Structures are given as C-alpha cells and as structure tokens.
C-alpha cells in the first residue's frame, strides 16, 4: 500500500467552501443525482468534502468509503454520513495514496476533486488500483474551458493566486484527457456548466460521465 501523504489543511478555504457549496447546492444537486444513479456495490469516493454527495447514493450501494484529507470538511462529512440512507465510512487520506486494498471496490467516485489533488496522474492510478477490473469510475469534474481566450485566462489564474486562495484548485486541468492517459476506458460523458459558487466567481465548465478500469487490467 502506498505511503500516505501529509494531511491537507486549508482551514480558511474549507470554511468558505462549506458555505458556498451549500448555497449553490440547488443548482448542483441534479448533477450529483445523475452522477450516482445506478451505482451499486462497494463504493469509494475521493475528496468527499462536506458530504454533499451522500444523500444521492441509491439503496443498491452496500457501502461507501469516503476519503477526505481536510480536517474541517471531514468533520462535516462525518455529520452528513450519519444522515445518509446507506452506510458511509468517512476516513482521512489523500487521493494519491488511498488507505484501502487493491481491487476492493465496484465503483469509484471523483466529484469536483481532480482540480485540487497534488498529482492527478498518481491519484487516477490509485483509483484504478482500488477498482476491480471492469469497475466503474463516475466523475463530475470542472476544468479547461473551450475557447483559446478562456483557456488562456484559466492558465493565468493557475499560475498566480487561484490555487493559494482556493485550496489548491487548478482551473485549467483537463479531466477527460487525464483519464485517457491513466488508462481508463471512457464511457459516455457530457459537458455541463455549474453556476458561480459565490459573488465575483466565474461559472465553471464541467464534465460528467463514466469510465472503467479495463477488464484485462492486471495492475
């Protein structure tokens, strides 16, 4: 099992995120519901945040292991887990070094988290490791916008203060291309736009879909 990375601690951002994520949830909740519809078996969710996905897990899910590295958000996720309709175990850990056994899960969920992991390639490698061959990755991620001008602005933000202010978030990452490079087989996906999470913040171009660990994958 990989060595765990140091704990993530962004207390100011965590408080900000806890407030604005709840405020924007009426617009985001339908995407969360679509993300999780039909999921079944054992599920691992990385970057669970304050647990806003938990109410959307269907009864066909037998267990959710929810990984959250940030201490305040993890505490909020624990409270949300107590209200969930399916068993949810919230544990500390980083996406790049998941504290679980290989090939232990039927479904993995990455929801608005790949923007802020320290190492996207390693995080996706870990998700592939913990999924059984043929297991499904469900993703709802924001990232690079279409159009040269918008993409240029995103790259400029990522090189300046944005990651420092927003808990390591990078706006210009391309989650679909990252999934391809990590060896996942892409399933259906579509582009969506999420309304601004707070005053003065831009709308976020997102992608929602599925991918699979190849059945012949022997890693």
Automatic annotation (TrEMBL):
<dbReference type="InterPro" id="IPR029063">
    <property type="entry name" value="SAM-dependent_MTases_sf"/>
</dbReference>
<protein>
    <submittedName>
        <fullName>Methyltransferase type 11</fullName>
    </submittedName>
</protein>
<keyword id="KW-0808">Transferase</keyword>
<dbReference type="GO" id="GO:0032259">
    <property type="term" value="P:methylation"/>
</dbReference>
<dbReference type="Pfam" id="PF08241">
    <property type="entry name" value="Methyltransf_11"/>
</dbReference>
<dbReference type="InterPro" id="IPR013216">
    <property type="entry name" value="Methyltransf_11"/>
</dbReference>
<dbReference type="InterPro" id="IPR052356">
    <property type="entry name" value="Thiol_S-MT"/>
</dbReference>
<keyword id="KW-0489">Methyltransferase</keyword>
<feature type="domain" description="Methyltransferase type 11">
    <location>
        <begin position="45"/>
        <end position="138"/>
    </location>
</feature>
<dbReference type="GO" id="GO:0008757">
    <property type="term" value="F:S-adenosylmethionine-dependent methyltransferase activity"/>
</dbReference>
